[in-house]
Design a protein that fits this description.
The structure holds two protein chains of two kinds. Chain A is α/β, with parallel strands linked by helices. Helices cover 31% and strands 18% of the residues of chain A. Chain A is built from nine helices and 16 strands. Chain B has helices spanning 85-91, 128-139, 160-163, 188-194, 206-218, and strands spanning 9-21, 24-30, 43-46, 59-62, 65-67, 75-80, 98-105, 117-123, 143-150, 168-173, 180-181, 199-203, 222-226, 242-246, 252-256, 263-265. The chains are: A alpha/beta, B alpha/beta.
Chain lengths: 320, 282
């Protein structure tokens, strides 16, 4: 086993010392997890999708545990961009965390306004444009379910950001052809894609005999959706092998993360697993590195998309 | 470093004993030095189901009491009702088993600096953390009265040793199988007036906390309640356990009951808004 191992990764022009990220909406804005591990020890904190105005979110109940997963209906509760820029980003920067800011808007213009507010804020490594939150009032407004809407949002953000920050579009798996949506956002200026957001689901309470969640529908996450995520990553990498992909969806161990790397992800986010295990991202980070080394890889980057190699070639040959 | 979850640690904790008490299980865990940071009102989040379980979320339990004396060092007692798959798994863990716990979490009951007349109200096994609280209040020279209620006698949790830490104990059952027939709120106004109650501490179902709050507010009595809302993480990251709380400027904030609770000022919780509305407007 080689002792020289390069664990770093890049998403567009942004460099990260490790490929492990929090998932937007699963780490709040970082403070809460700081008691359990130093935030600077992971690739980056991806903050909870922030909107223009303060937002209270959906009524409770907001959560239901499901087999190997959970359904949530938070509705993008948050402090709004002003308070976020004033309080949350400086705190993360002070604590030496690398920061990927996730933004969400109700209109194309709102995304552009958010980008304008964030453009000159110091300490941000990349922008995640969440066009796929399922917990919005009108499901028809999930931009990522429509090619033209997806392009319009990314195009608007790209015009504001210019070449300053990498833009990562977070996509929904609830589409017929995720590759065409991914191609659309890349064409509109995205530097990478985050795959996948939660799947839309519902739980009915058999005592009240009504939908259990206050918002009726919710987003399904956790290990139950991991194969869907791996499939989406594999398909998009196959179509665009050079495109940086931030993979997520049910990762709770290093082996889960390795699947995503092999499928074509350059980075992996740990989300729901942090709810059950606040230390999960560190456990995943440690185990993934060990698994990569055990398989003879000398860098993370050499393993990205390795599952796509020619069926005839032996693993050793490909590693050279 | 943030002050959120400041003393919380994720540790393996041994089960020292697991006894059935009526409809509940009394589980004693070894948590070592963490007892120093555990106060009445705090809770613990425990992984359930083992490593390969499909139950991916921790289960949150109020800490019944802690002790730093005894042969095992620091111990934590929990009262668990085997209601769902997760709590049934926990209740099946025998002496010697190791649990993955995160504790102490959440806010604690505020303890008055001067001796006051305190009334502790528990619904069902919500009484569990109140006995530890009673001991702390007694040590501060407070008068401590307790009233417990449940639908039926087996659902009352009132250990013998706990009864010694209160000045009086009244029990209410809705089916009249013991104590007074009715609910804890039935004679609450009279009790507050007669016993000159300064502060109420409560723990139990949300409907009970809401009913106590409206009486306490109308009589100008401080009401600290430990709320119960479904939690996914227990550490403030998931935003599922929120409650509508009225801020000083009159607007509503959705506060996380895991880090901004579970102990909240009953007068500030907007009980009528809990679970209401398609979108809660700011």
């Amino acid at each position: 086993m080689s002792s020289e191992f390069d664990y770093s990764t890049k998403l567009g022009t942004a460099w990260f010392p490790t490929p492990l990220f929090t998932a937007s909406g699963c780490a709040s804005s970082g403070r809460e997890l700081a008691q359990f591990f130093p935030l600077k020890s992971i690739g980056a904190v991806v903050t909870k999708s922030i909107m223009l105005k303060p937002r209270l979110g959906r009524p409770t109940p907001r959560m239901s545990e499901t087999p190997s997963g959970m359904l949530n209906s938070i509705g993008l509760q948050g402090p709004g961009i002003d308070a976020f820029i004033a309080n949350d980003i400086p705190w993360l920067v002070e604590n030496s965390a690398r920061v990927v800011v996730s933004i969400a808007g109700e209109t194309v213009e709102e995304y552009a306004t958010l980008a304008r507010r964030l453009r000159s804020v110091p300490g941000i490594s990349a922008l995640e444009v969440n066009i796929s939150c399922p917990n919005v009032e009108n499901r028809g407004l999930v931009f990522a379910c429509d090619l033209d809407s997806s392009r319009a949002v990314i195009d608007g953000v790209r015009r504001i950001i210019g070449g300053d920050l990498p833009i990562i579009a977070k996509l929904s798996p609830d589409v017929t052809d995720i590759v065409s949506i991914a191609k659309g956002v890349v064409d509109a200026g995205a530097d990478g894609v985050a795959l996948i957001n939660t799947l839309l689901g519902m739980v009915i309470n058999i005592d009240t005999m009504r939908p259990h969640l206050g918002g009726k529908t919710g987003g399904l996450s956790g290990p139950a959706i991991r194969p869907v995520a791996v499939r989406a990553i594999y398909q998009v990498h196959e179509a665009m092998p050079k495109l940086p992909i931030l993979g997520m969806g049910g990762v709770r161990s290093g082996r889960d993360a390795l699947e995503m790397i092999l499928a074509g992800a350059s980075g992996v986010s740990v989300g729901t697993a942090s709810f059950g295990n606040p230390h999960a991202i560190i456990d995943v980070q440690t185990e993934l590195e060990r698994l990569l080394r055990e398989r003879g890889f000398d860098s993370l980057r050499s393993a990205v998309g390795f599952a796509h190699r020619d069926a005839q070639s032996a693993p050793d040959e490909d590693l050279s | 470093m943030s002050s959120i979850n400041r003393f919380a640690k994720q540790i393996p904790a041994h089960v020292l004993s697991n006894k059935r008490v009526g409809q509940y299980h009394q589980i004693l865990l070894n948590i070592g030095d963490l007892v120093k940071h555990c106060h009445p009102g705090n809770f613990v989040a425990i992984s359930v189901g083992g490593d390969n379980s499909g139950m991916i979320l921790r289960r949150a339990f109020a800490i019944s009491r802690v002790s730093d004396r005894g042969e095992y060092g620091g111990t934590m007692e929990l009262i668990v009702a085997p209601h769902g798959a997760g709590s049934r798994w926990l209740c099946s863990q025998q002496e010697g088993a190791t649990l993955d716990v995160v504790t102490p979490l959440g806010s604690a009951f505020g303890i008055p600096t001067e001796p006051v007349n305190a009334l502790l109200i528990g619904g069902g096994y919500g009484s569990a953390p109140l006995f530890g609280l009673a001991e702390v209040l007694k040590a501060r020279g407070c008068r401590v009265d307790m009233i417990l209620g449940a639908s039926s006698t087996p659902k009352i949790y009132a250990p013998l040793e706990g009864k010694r830490s209160v000045n009086s104990l009244k029990i209410y059952t809705e089916d009249a199988t013991s104590g007074i027939h009715g609910r804890v709120t039935d004679s609450l106004r009279e009790i507050i007036a007669q016993d000159q109650i300064d502060v109420i501490y409560s723990c139990g179902p949300m409907a009970m906390l809401s009913a106590i709050s409206s009486i306490a507010s109308s009589m100008d009595v401080v009401h600290q309640c430990a709320v119960e809302e479904a939690m996914a993480c227990g550490i403030g990251v998931c935003m599922t356990c929120v409650l509508p709380v009225t801020k000083d400027d009159g607007s509503i904030a959705m506060l996380r009951s895991c880090i901004e609770g579970p102990v909240m000022d009953g007068a500030k919780v907007a009980w009528n808004l809990v679970g209401q509305g398609r979108e809660v407007k700011a």
